[in-house]
Amino acid sequence: MSAREPLWRMIALARPRGTRFALGVLLGAVATGSGVALLGVAAWLIATAAQHPPITALSVAVVATRALGVTRGVARYLERLVTHDAAFRTLADVRVRVYERLARTEPIRRFRSGDLVSRLVSDTDATQDLLIRGLTPPLVAVVTGAATVAVCTALLVPGGLLLAAGLLLAGLAVPLCAAALGKGPGRRQAAARGELSTSLVDALHGAPDLIAYGAMDQAVRRVERADGELTRVARRDAALLGFGAGATTLITGLTVWGTLLLGVAAVEDATLGAVPFAVLVLTALAAFEIVAPLPAVAARLGAVRASGERLFDVLDQPSALAKEPETPGEPLRDETALRVRGLRVRYGPDEPWALDGVDIDVPPGRKVAVLGPSGAGKSTLAAVLLRFRDPDSGTVELGGADITDRPADEVRRIVTGVPQDPHVFASTLRENLRLARPEADGTELWEALRRARLAEDVEAMPHGLDTEVGSHGARLSGGMRQRLALARALLAAPRVLVLDEPTAHLDPDTRDAVVADLLAAAEGYSTLFITHDLTGMDRMDEIYVVADGRVLQHGGHEELLARDGWYREAHTRNGPAAPSASGAR
């Protein structure tokens, strides 16, 4: 099995707690061995008692029976305690790794939201399932199975060999068959779970639009199809578990009957006594408790492997950021000038350049616009400035320091912004604002709202700052969501404010008002206004016209209007959106 096999990689995640899992295996072996020994000692006690020996001859066995019963319960409890503790701690580490990976991955966007939730929950939890059910029981079975076969072989060699064959069939052959049969259904189960989660989230979040366009019935049918597929896979999984349980029971019965017949023949030949005969048969019966969990574990391996592949698909996503510097340099200066030189970025070796040699300057306290059509590379520029990805070549400097030489969090304390589609959490206005600065008090929150021109609207709400905004801010208008995002950005007290298409989804009247409010609130900040729209360009100190990842024009509003080219053509058309890149050329 390859080291890149998901199951091995999932087990490797538990390496820091290998000692605990080894202790869990030891305790599991003690618990299972005590169960087998308990039945063996009980058989000896009953068979010996039938011969009416002195009571003193039975005292040791009576005490041993009680001791084994207590030991079995205590060892099983400790084994569950130790292994579950180790598995839960490992699971917590895995979740942290996944969240950290997503926090530094922009790649989160390559996964659909419902599918991503399934990866974060069900597929991550599969690690715990593998460690608890797939790691400890097989190791326990090897240890206790070998010991039990050795004891039975010492009593009667043919009986011990038959028991070994039965245990190998029930503990190895049946699980291997179950694993082979469960490989396909397991993979389909993980995919079906992700599809159900995706279709359900899409239907719930898109309900207003689906209803408006009469597409809700189609969305519901999609959910039903996904649920039906998952149900079919679950039925096959249940059938597979039934096969494993039935096959194990059949092998157990045949092995015990075979041991019984061999034992009877040995007693008749006087090569085995009556008491050892009873011990042999009942020990053989108890021995199958050792391998009973294994077929069910093996049947789940296909689903666990598929979950592991989906989990590592997230963890193996390449980071768009270079390694964080280990030692921070001098703190960035408060009066921070932003300087971009020769910036080139693309999303893959064979992809075209999203930015191709861009030069931009944002002096302290100045308002600079980056204007261009969709696909011009504007959002890529914002991603680089906010350190969601690093340049392929060229430099971005803050106060003379290259941002790739500084920790991303330090850069984001200096440069923050209002994205094109700001996320509003399903909580209160207060909690959404305090994401930027958890220690902010009410006065500071209201000041940020006033600067974003949102204070009057919030004051008119019955619960003020404690107003619930709904899922994704559904109870707020588009303009209010943008202003809330701006207030949150202002509360972080940045030095450079990046406004990335903040009016993209607003109607013209709302757009004009929001632009005026954004620019008024940004007074005193170094502001980079990234947009495809001409609104507010007359208030900019400098304008960079960008298309196909390159700067076409650069200058002030009046200067560009006086010059032939893209900007004057767009302004003459007096449309709300900029013309296409082809027309710009």
TrEMBL record:
It is a multi-pass membrane protein. Its main location: membrane. Residues 338-573 form the ABC transporter domain. Keywords: ATP-binding, Cell membrane, Membrane, Nucleotide-binding, Transmembrane, Transmembrane helix, Transport. InterPro entries: AAA+_ATPase, ABC1_TM_dom, ABC1_TM_sf, ABC_CydC/D, ABC_transporter-like_ATP-bd, ABC_transporter-like_CS, P-loop_NTPase, Type_1_exporter. This is ATP-binding cassette subfamily C protein CydC. One of its GO terms (biological process) is cell redox homeostasis. The keyword Transferase does not apply. It is found in: Cell membrane. One of its GO terms (molecular function) is ATPase-coupled lipid transmembrane transporter activity. GO terms for cellular component: plasma membrane. The keyword Repressor does not apply. Residues 22-306 form the ABC transmembrane type-1 domain. NCBIfam families: CydC. The chain crosses the membrane at residues 21-47, 53-71, 139-157, 163-181, 240-267, 273-292. PANTHER family: ATP-BINDING CASSETTE SUB-FAMILY B, ATP-BINDING CASSETTE SUB-FAMILY B MEMBER 6.
